[in-house]
Known about the structure:
six-stranded parallel sheet, homodimer, elongated, 3 domains
Amino acid sequence: MSRRPTLVDVARLAGVSRATAARAIAGQPTVDPALAARVEEAARELGYTTNPAARALRRGRAGAVAIVVPASDAQGQSGPFTAAPIRAATRVIFDAGQQPVLLLDEGRDTDRLVRHLSAGHVDAAVVILLYESVELDQVLADVPIPVAHVGRPSSERSADGWFVEADQAGGGRQAAETLLDAGRHRLATLAGPDHFGPGRERLQGFADRCREAGVDPGPRVPGEYELEAGTRAAEELLRQRPDVDGIFATSDLVAAGALRALAAAGRRVPDDVAIVGFDDTVVAATSDPPLTSVRQPFDELGTRAARLALALLAGTAEGPRRQVVPTTVTVREST
Amino acid sequence: MSRRPTLVDVARLAGVSRATAARAIAGQPTVDPALAARVEEAARELGYTTNPAARALRRGRAGAVAIVVPASDAQGQSGPFTAAPIRAATRVIFDAGQQPVLLLDEGRDTDRLVRHLSAGHVDAAVVILLYESVELDQVLADVPIPVAHVGRPSSERSADGWFVEADQAGGGRQAAETLLDAGRHRLATLAGPDHFGPGRERLQGFADRCREAGVDPGPRVPGEYELEAGTRAAEELLRQRPDVDGIFATSDLVAAGALRALAAAGRRVPDDVAIVGFDDTVVAATSDPPLTSVRQPFDELGTRAARLALALLAGTAEGPRRQVVPTTVTVREST
DNA sequence: GTGAAAGCGCTAACAT
DNA sequence: ATGTTAGCGCTTTCAC
């Protein structure tokens, strides 16, 4: 017979009862070492592994944890950023002996997602909502399993959830410090779209830190998070403040676009103007010159959120309901 | 009571036996429509959903399909590329009513991965091996579930597996056509590392297409897939063939690096020299000028591989064991 | 067309 | 310390 061996087969081969076999395999201390050894030997010989479905049924737990991410394609806003927390969370969940189940929030058909999360397929969820999907975390509040969020509670409904997020304002402060340390005092910022909350916080942190140092944060030129928008915004900035010597862009793409405007205007970077980007993407590494950029701890966010989900599941979660993880600065040649 | 309702609860409320309830919910035609309606109503009222663990135990299937990816971080070679097939495969698997389980191949501890795949946690697997892990697909040959690969059989052992891959040589041909169509005849290529098989195929396709057109494919300057390497390679190329008017780089990063060397040498792109990159990454979109680039159908690969895995599971797989999907050219301003 | 009942493989409560 | 046994919830014969 080639059917998968069950506990009964192992017990028989070892000459013990199912119960003893089960206990031996579970590593319970109340088993005679000699018997335990026989059971282990039998299990190895037969290639026994416990049947996950049977265990799940018996325990009332699926043995799986969902990782929920927005489905936006790789070109989308958060595409490049979700990969790191997904991997980190996957690793933590798998290492904890659970199955990491990846679920995409397609926007449409959120119901289906919620139903899946409520149907016993998974025991807990890590939800990665870096920037989008205000509505998603509203619906998630109804899900009957523990949920750990990466990102920010975007609705009051979800305000009592568990969150792990990057310190956006702190990132802005680090950008300010980087420019101030380089002796820049004629500053300016290239902002993202107004509706993008984290971007606003970055600017707020930047401004706060500047003021603490007694330096004017300078004008704030808004724009989309796109390369051309960065170029245009920087052109506008050069009109508004021709003597600028330090720029903080809340996105690498914008910073990279600004580099072009600066080059076109004959400003040398960093000699005449220093510039700091945000997100430390591949664009920062490949622009000319490569950009100093503020990096969000995406791995760490994923790791922490997954640990949090597991702790919530085990009932051992403690500490604040909202963890804020600091950003870091990757220094390259633009400052 | 607040425990999840079971089929028994539904049956009782509907006034039928479990068996009938089960049949009604499974949509079997051998049920009196009136009863079926009552069952459906009862199920809705109670908020019944079938218990996946019980179903899995009974059916002998986990109801889950693995997606196996290399764990290399976002900086790694394949990091940016695996995201698309992962998403596509996830979508297909979820839409088929199965759980997409994400598994990372960390390199170390491949055994653990194989054990997981063999233990009944999942019924089939999609393995995304765009470039790496020669050993992984060797080990996977022993896994007792159907496996569909994205990428290439890299060992003879796995040569009888099922594969979906991008047409690398075809991509090289498209690059050649793009340059030839632009009237370029003094060509050259910037190659990747010799050990990288797909890169060699791209060049082969390029050379084949050139020769078909009666044009010399020109010198081939090797280098790593990095920006600076691209700059150096292009400098070397300009020495070897100063009259070059069309360049194919087998990586966007190399192409972007080459743009710098060309600019430094006073060559205008595309007026003096046209250049085609490969992979259509964000670097292609943000370089100056933006690069025309060959795009691999990563979504399509993921979609097809997931469908293939499901078909293998259902026993309905047909067609060739190796599917080759064409690349496309994204035209920007470098040609 | 419907119901009764067995059993998937495991775990844990209970008995010894 | 070990064995016996019930039962998790579903699916699917088998009998009517």
